[in-house]
Structures are given as structure tokens and as C-alpha cells.
Amino acid sequence: MSGRVLVGVKRVIDYAVKIRVKPDNSGVVTDGVKHSMNPFCEIAVEEAVKLKEKKLIKEVVAVSCGPQQSQETIRTALAMGADRGIHVEVSGKDYEALGPLQVSKILAALAKKEEAQLVILGKQAIDDDCNQTGQMTAALLDWPQGTFASEVSLEGDKVKVVREIDGGLETIKINTPAVLTADLRLNTPRYATLPNIMKAKKKKVVNMKPADLGVDVATRLEVLRVDEPPQRQAGVKVETVEDLVGKLKETGRI
Amino acid sequence: MNRAFSKTSLKHLSGLLQRFQSTLVVAEHNNDKLTPITLNAITAASKLGGEVSCLVAGTNCAKVVEQISKVQGVKKVLVAQHDSYKGALPEELTPLILATQNQFNFTHICAGASAFGKNLLPRVAAKLDVAPISDIIEIKSPDTFVRTIYAGNALSTVKCNESVKVFTVRGTSFEAASTEGGSATSEDVASSSPTGISEWLEQSLTKSDRPDLTSAKVVVSGGRGLKSGENFKLLYDLADKLNAAVGASRAAVDAGFVPNDMQVGQTGKIVAPELYIAVGISGAIQHLAGMKDSKTIVAINKDPEAPIFQVADYGLVADLFKAVPEMTEALSK
Which parts of the sequence belong to the Electron transfer flavoprotein alpha/beta-subunit N-terminal domain (chain A) (predicted)? Predict the structure, then answer.
């Protein structure tokens, strides 16, 4: 195959950050909080770059939808080996309301425009935890989907995908063009080296708006409020295994 | 004038329709048995207050239809049996669900938030041009749902103004519907013509005599502290005494100690057993996301500073290689 891969990358609060809910319950504090590329998106980028290194595809295009800062996330993908970037700028209120349905419409429009043969995404973003965008993009394009992929091999005009399912693994074979979503075990993303970060600055990033793609970002989902989850009562330390088993028996747990 | 009239009557009509909720639960099964999470999804569907129908699609549906017909709260079982539903591929099931939706006009379509439900429902939603809602933990009203975001560190209450509400249900947040006492009618629905763009090849399932991780009453989980796959035997022995399922942290899976379908956490399985015993697990945010709704949490860890102790009801600061065999021994008495 000598096609093009579109990789979706999302800028999210860094996975190690302990998030805080805003006092007015309108959302989560994001200002001044460390952000980075969604871990599953990193895996998607790595897989696309690997396919290029194996000369199975010719070009990797990284796409991100969001405010100005999303460009940093695209630069990270470029430093990992993507060839060029597309930043679909969505900001302010529209960005707050931006969900998988809107993003999948944008990605589907871009996949057609760029004549992509594969769209690779992460299986979920660690902020909204939706696990929807890949499936929805596939639906809008009427392409098959290989979700929660832990192994991907191109076989002519088909893709063999090993998927992580509840009881173990399953293998499917799907036609291309197709949408794949990466699970944790698909690969280990590389670190961008300094020379590659410098090179990435020279790579092209095109800026566009959803309207340029004919996508309406209006949403019919309304977040009424965001709350802290209930806190657990502080527990006790026990000294010995005997104490532990005793306590569990007392409370009827064993 | 005429137009204005028809608009009002349309509005009136849709208002009427909205009062009659009807929910389609997409049943998950393996052609032999209903997957337990479907029972939790049926309970969630019943909370919406309307009529609950279940769709059973597969290559061999008779047994599952029989089971689901007896489930409390199910009014109607829709059956689609065809060879193209082998492997429950979303490319084949989506057109079927859309056709069913066209015929019956459900106000809600849901499934359990398992690998099956997560794979399928967003595809259906996109085809209906509606935004789906993932992994709900509570139903406030027919259009208002609660779900967790940021690895369970915040609860988001969402109002869905879509014409059809498509959602997946967190199994551990809703009781399982009773498998007896129901008397649903069953009816065949027309199968869709195969799309043929995907093909199911094979499955390799982890075989185990232990209870299923997501529905077990007791779960014993191991992390990096176990040091090797062989050492997991300590946990299997303990689990056997407790009739428990065995889980793992991402660290244990990544290190190759155990297969990934045992992973508990934000990106693995969400469990909420009566008793969760975390052994050699530090308690990273991503792991806590998968188990912090457990009724009682026990942590065994030699590091007194491990974050797992902040959520544990009972903490034992000890070397697991000593404490776990001792515990197994104590339970044998």
C-alpha cells in the first residue's frame, strides 16, 4: 500500500495530574495545568510512523481539533515522525462543547479530502473517557473499524487486527480504507529527540476551521454540572495478617 | 397558515411520543449464554420508565432468546439470526439496529459498557447523527445521565437533547435484572444484507475456572510488586480460598506477568466487588479508576506511603511474599 494515514491527536491534561473540579461545578480546572498529548494518541502516532518506516504507507498526517495550543500537540506528533499537520481550530464556547460527534465529522471530512487509506486514533481520550470518536468516524465514512487494536498488519488491501476484548483477544480482517483505534499494548511510543523536535518546527501545519470542511460543531449535549466524586472514609492500618482476616470476618466480607 | 399548523401539530405529536419511552437493549451473548452485563443494562433501561425490548443478533439465537424471555422487565425480544452476525461485527450489526430503529422508533438504545458495547454503540449513534453517552453510572431522568470523566475523578451530569438517546451502561452501577419471572414475547426482525467489509477470524480467550472479573464478589489483584508471572500463583491460591477473581494493574500486564484482559483500571475493566484486595499495587490514578467503588478495599504493600493506602479500608504494611501465604493459610483453617 502506498497510501496516506490520518492520525488524530488530542491535547489533554497530563495523565499524572490530579485534577480539580471548579468551585462553580462548571467543569475541571484547566488553566495553568500541565497538558500533553493523550497517551493513546501517542500510540496511534507511533503505529502510523512505524508503517511509514516499513514503507507500507507514504505519508502520515497529524490532525488536532481545538484551540491555539493544540498546535503544540501537532508539533509533538511531527517530532515523532508525522510528515505534516492539520490544525482544525475550535476555541471558546465551541471548544468546551466539542465532543466525539463533532470531531468525528471533522475527521471524516478530512479523511475524504486527503484520500486517506487509514485513520488511526487512540481508543479513548483520558479526559472525557468517551471511547467513541474512532467508531463514529468509521460510521460516517462507512469504513470498517478495528478498535482496541493490540496488533495491526497490512495485508494487501486488507488489515489484520488483533483486538483486546473482554475475555482475551480476537482477530479480524477488515477492508481498507479503515479506521483503527489503538489500545495500550499496540506499541511503545518513541521519545522525540531534540534534532527531531527542531526538524518538526519546519514541517507544515495547515490551519483551518470546521466550517471550511462543512462541519457544524453545534452540540445537543449539555453538561449540567461537574462534581467531585464521593470521598472514601479514611481506613485503618492493621498490624498482622491475623488482624486483617479478623476484621474482614467481623464485617462479613469473608 | 397551513405550514404553521402542521408545525404545531408536529411539535404536539413529538411531545406525545416523548412521553412514551421505549428502550432497545442490545443483548451481548456468545450464541449460548447471555453475557451478565446485559442484565445490568436491562435494569438501567427499566429505570427509564418505558417499555424495554431486547435485540438478540447472532448465528444461533434460540438459547439466548429463551434466557432473555424470562428476564424480569423485558417486554419483547427481537431476534435476528444470520450467519453474517458471526463475531458480532459492528459493520454488520449497525445496519440491523438502524433497520430495527426505523421500524420501532425507540427513544433510547443502550448496551453494557463492555468491549462489545463500546465497539458497537458509537457506530450506531453516528449513523443516527446523535451524540452517544458512554459508561453511565446513574439515570436522573430519561434525558439526564451521570458519568465519570478524568479516570473517575469527576462526575459529569449530562442532559441529552438528542431525539434518540444512545448510551452504554456501567455494569457495576446497576443491579442485575432477575433472570426469572419475566415473560417476554419474541419476534423475528428482518436481517440486514451483509456488508462484507469486515471478517471475524478467531478468538483466543483466557481460560479460567475462577469467577468473571467484572461480576465477582471478591477480587484479588496484583501489581508490579509480584515481580514475576510465576509469583501470581500466590494470588491464585488466595483467590481460590475466597472464590475470587484475579485482576492486575497495568504494570503487571505490561511486564508480561498476566494477560491484558485481567487489567483493572481506566483503560481496563471497571470492577466494584464487595471485597477488593490490592497486593503490591501502588494505587496510581488510572488503577483507582477501575476499583475505587469496591465496598471494602484491602491493601497489602510494603511501602507505607503508597497512594493505595489512601483509599484502603484496611491496610497492611508488609512484604506480600510473607503476608499473602499467611493469609491463604489463615483462610484454610
Answer: 25-217
pLDDT tens column, B269-286: 999 999 999 999 999 999
B89 interaction partners in chain A (CB closer than 8 Å): 172
Our CA angle for B318, B323, B326, nearest 5°, is 155
Specify the CATH superfamily of domain B218-331.
Answer: TPP-binding domain (3.40.50.1220)
- Please tell me if the domain spanning B19-188 has the same topology as the one spanning B218-331: yes
Does residue A91 register a pLDDT over 80? Answer: yes
pLDDT-wise least confident of A82-91, B3-12, B244-253:
B3-12
B185 Cα to chain A: minimum distance (Å)? 30
Q: For A7, which DSSP code?
A: E
In angstroms, the CA A30 to CA A21 distance is 9
Exposure class string for B274-303: b at 16+ Cβ within 10 A, else e = ebbbbbbbbbbbbbbbbbbbbebbbbbbee
Q: Is A18 on the interface with B (CB under 8 A)?
A: yes
Instruction: Say whether residue A101 is in contact with chain B using an 8 A CB cutoff.
Output: yes
Q: Which amino acid is at B193?
A: S
By the 10 Å C-beta count (0-12 exposed, 13-18 middle, 19+ buried), B102 is classed as: exposed
State the architecture of B19-188 in CATH terms: 3-Layer(aba) Sandwich (3.40)
Ranges of each domain in chain B: 19-188, 218-331
Provide ipTM, 2 decimals: 0.97
B134/A222 touch (CB, cutoff 8 Å), yes or no: no
Minimal Cα–Cα distance from A139 to chain B, Å? 5
User: How is residue B55 written as a grid cell?
Assistant: 435485540
In terms of DSSP H, where are the helices of B243-307?
250-254, 285-288
Chain B, 124 to 163: residues with Cβ < 8 Å from chain A are 124-127, 129-135, 144, 147-162
Q: Tell me which chain A residues have a C-beta less than 8 angstroms from the C-beta of B318.
A: 241
* C-beta of residue B111 within 8 angstroms of C-beta of residue B57: no
Residue A8 contacts residue A66 (beta carbons within 8 Å):
no
The structure's pTM equals 0.94
d(CA A211, CA A10): 20
The answer to whether the CB atoms of B201 and A100 lie below 8 A apart is: no
Q: Do B154 and A171 touch (CB under 8 A)?
A: no
B163 has a pLDDT exceeding 50: yes
User: Where do we find the cell 463533532?
Assistant: A102
Q: How would residue B4 be classed by pLDDT, with cut points 50, 70 and 90?
A: very low
3-class secondary-structure state, position A99: coil
- Cell digits of residue A251: 464485617
**Alpha-carbon gap, residue A174 to A178, rounded angstroms:** 7
Q: pLDDT digits over A229-242, tens only?
A: 999 887 999 999 99
